[in-house]
Amino acid sequence: MKILNVYRSEPDGDVKKLVEIVTEGREATEFKLYGGEVDYDKLVDMVFEADKAICWW
């Protein structure tokens, strides 16, 4: 299963731990919405390539 983790802000320790638990044993990719210009076309492509997308605030 491919999981896409989308971060709205920089993840803190709690979020990092949750991501680790959720993605254990699975293929995971990340997309950051913070810290510069965002390539939304790339994000849309990544969402369709993933089996599951999780948004972290």
Q: What is the fold's blueprint, element by element?
A:
Layout: E1 2-7, H1 13-23, E2 27-32, H2 40-49, E3 52-56
Parallel strand pairs: 1-2, 1-3
Query: What does the oligomeric state look like here?
Result: single chain
Q: Give the helices and strands as they follow along the chain.
A: EHEHE
How are the strands of the biggest sheet laid out side by side? 2-1-3
- Alpha-beta classification: alpha/beta
Indicate how many domains the architecture comprises.
Answer: 1
Evaluate the radius of gyration: 11 Å
* Mean pLDDT across every amino acid position: 97
Separate helix tally: 2
Report the major sheet. 3 strands, parallel
List the uncertain runs.
none
Features:
57 residues; alpha/beta; 3-stranded parallel beta sheet; 2 helices; 3 strands; flat
Short account of what is shown:
The chain is α/β, with parallel strands linked by helices and 57 residues long. Helices cover 37% and strands 30% of the residues.
